[in-house]
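seq:
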Amino acid sequence: MRIFGHSFYIVSYTILSCFCYYYIYFHLERSNFYELLLVYTILFWGYFKTVKNYSHLFKILIVSGIIFRILGIFSLPNLSQDYIRFFWDGQVMINQISPYKLIPLELLKSETISIFEKEYLIETMGSLSQIHFSNYPPLSQFIFLISSYLFPKSILGFVVILKLLFISFECITIFLGIKLLTFIELNESRILWYVLNPLVIIECFGNLHFESIMIAFIILSLLLFVTKKYNYSAIALGLSILLKIIPLLFLPLIWFKIPKINRYKFISILLTTFVIGFIPFLDGELIYNYSKTMALWINKFEFNGSIYYVFRALGTWFYGYNPIALYGKMMISFMLIFGMSYAYFNRANLKPKAVIHQMIILLSVNLFVSTTIHPWYLCTLIFLNVFTSYSYIIAWSYLAILSYSAYMHPEVKEKPLFLIIEYIPVILIFIKEMIDFDFDRLHHFKKR
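struct:
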């Protein structure tokens, strides 16, 4: 049966998904976990079935993915309060103060600065943001500043500007993703695994997490890299790091993939891009304050961990206290050694599919050993999987929603049962797929 030339299923899927996304954008409260789980399950089931069976309706589904985002342009994020800190940082910079210089509670007492709804912002941003310097890199801060400048007295206006920007960058990601898929002879319809993924739509667009923009720069860097335009690739990668620090993880891999004659120039350009981004905030306290804030994510904060929680349980039993500080140092050391070793032993395989596969392994291992894994951390992995097709990443993008069970009560309290349900299948599938891995499998979706 067909309606206006399109399959009845696609029309039904789009309409049902629109209702679900509208509910999440405008009505769902974060504490209503079981409602979120039900709606998300409906969305994910539709997503998986649609991409699996109807990817030949490629252009229609791309439009559907954009419609799912447009629905939420005028909604405030209701599953995350991070946007409040975004607005705060923008307001602070309008007052010509660095967000890396003073914590919000210190600024609250100041009578010399003007911040719209100062008390409300402090109360709403959460206790962690109140007492820490901003952890968002300079390019993100620049976006906060522009959006706050355009709407200095409207949080909704600020959010709308960000969402319009996010949609623009997601369109760039789609365009560049299709170009890279075509370049490495993969079917362009594989981009649908990213475009229609409910976790990406809800976390990147709905909750305004900057992975949405960072991924656009990563794919730009990748496309320039595989076409051997190394200098421009370095600039694009530097810009991605100025949005989120996580792309630093890929540097050892890139180092060994670049011809020796280009290596030092690539790193020099990348570091220059990175340093230029920080120049507007440069003062005597910048390095100390920013590094101190970033260290908190390794040595103090914990949420939705997997291997770390096993270590924590054993460490608490053995030492009598939570050894997170020790684990943080061990994790950094492990990732440095693993990252360099893995990059070195895989240096000979220069095929684009192999490079992306290795990026996925590095990022996956980092996520498995991290102390804090918010659902949006998976969005980069979901995008890279467009070029490989790992089942554990698809499964994880569904099961990660279980981490929201921690918000069912006013105090954030994680449920061990949900952690087990989330990670046991993901880790088992990961192990199986690594054992069975064959680079030939990367050709299964080759264009015909």
